[in-house]
Amino acid sequence: MKGKKITLVLISLIMALFLAACGNGGNDKQESNNYENGSHGNMKDENMDHSEMNHSGSGEVPEGLKEAENPTYQVGSKAILETDHMEGMKGAEAEIVGAYDTTVYAVSYTPTTGGERVKNHKWVIHEELMDASDTPFKPGDEVTLEAGHMEGMKGAKATIKTAQQMTIYMVDYISTIDGKEVENHQWVTEDEIYPLEGDDLGHTGH
Predict the structure, then answer these.
(1) Start-to-end C-alpha separation, the chain
(2) pLDDT of 127-161, one tens digit each?
(3) Fewer Cβ atoms within 10 Å of its own Cβ: the N or the C terminal residue of the chain?
(4) Dist. CA 117–CA 41, nearest whole Å
(5) In the beta sheet, which residues pair with residue 145?
(6) Phi (first) and psi of residue 68, to 5 degrees
(7) pLDDT tens track for 156-189
(8) Which of 3.40.50.300, 2.30.30.1210, 2.60.120.280, 2.40.70.10 is the CATH number of 66-195?
């Protein structure tokens, strides 16, 4: 009888250990699945993340970039930004500090620092591409970036996604998120801005 009790106790202990092991295994499996599905910490897709972008710039422009002779928005005029390249940009009041005629590209590239491929980055201009000749690149062309708008951008290999000849603008603006001034932001296109209401300075009918 005594031996039977000992056997029952041993069986109970074995069952308890078995159930505990199964429980931990389930948790481990759940954590593994969460990581793979992107819910482990902040696994935000970085393809469209411009948080690493240099918000303010020195105002220097690439060598050979030509100032626009008759831009829709003259330097010194005010405008409202419609683009959302970065948080705090859309709807912000801006001042035009530079207007240039060039070929403007959207590009996809893999950062030199590693990580996910950045898709359709807007914008890079012709003068910011290595070995750029007088002839614009076409969609599908492979290029090397000299622009340093984002970390891991300069020196990266990129594919041209779109190419358009147009006026491109450099702007100062006040962030709608924290009210801080961003200086010499590069770049916004004409269809990404509209005139400040009641301010016609330099506006020629956009």
Answers:
(1) 99
(2) 999 999 999 999 999 999 999 888 999 999 999 99
(3) N
(4) 20
(5) 129
(6) -70, 135
(7) 999 999 999 999 999 999 999 999 999 999 999 9
(8) 2.30.30.1210
